[in-house]
Amino acid sequence: MRRVISFIISMIPINKLKIFCYNFFMGYKISYKASVGFFNVINAEELHVFDDAVLGNFLRVNGKPKVFLYEKVKLKSYTAINGYGKLVINENTVVNSAYFDLASFINIGKNVVIGGKGTEFWTHGYDINRNKLIGGITIGDNTYIGSRVIFNLGISVAANVSIGAGTVVSKTIKESFQFIVSNQIVCKKAKEVSVSNNYHYLGIINGEKVFSKNMKE
After folding, report:
1. For the segment 132-183, what is each residue's pLDDT rounded down to a tens digit?
2. What gap in Å lies between CA 51 and CA 69, rounded to an integer?
């Protein structure tokens, strides 16, 4: 029902009236200085949108995540957010048609550009024994991200980094002022995650053994 109500609200042509309806009927906290587009389905547990933020058209938010979009964030059309974790996008960041998987947290810094289209942020995966792995993603300030970049769980990227199109980011990038690009296939022996000190066991959730990577939000 919330999804239907959200879609109906998205069709209201007057922006401030639309925001009032989101806040009143959905319980969101959207600034009246923000702008919200059309044909959106936004089903979040919490949605905080600050001054001068812009939400595009055809957005999809499912799984009841907690979403914080700070001042002058531009969340452009066809962006999708799915899961129950927390997404924070800080000031002056532009997101072009990206996918955010929120099994854990994702924190995007200030003045970040997620360019092109098709970039994906994944905070969950599985080991060889089908144990579920989760881990957050942190992107530093002033980072540029090209089209179709894939971020794997449990990594962070330093500030002032440029990541080329098509790159798979599977390890933490600790140094600033780097240009990162990869199209190599790296093979290594698989192992069960439970033998790694980088994860701790959370328990059985929805019938799956779940391990979380040790990271600070």
Report:
1. 999 999 999 999 999 999 999 999 999 999 999 999 999 999 999 888 887 6
2. 9
| Helix or strand holding residue 10 (H, E) | helix 2-10
CB-side neighbour CA atoms (13 Å) of 102: 25
Helix then strand then coil, % of the chain, to nearest 5: 10, 35, 50
Which domains does the chain carry?
A: 2-182+190-213 (2.160.10.10)
Q: Which residues pair with 139 in a beta bridge?
A: 108, 157
Residues with Cβ within 8 Å of residue 2, at least 6 apart in sequence: 26, 43
Sign of the dihedral defined by the CA atoms of residues 168, 173, 176, 178, in that order: negative
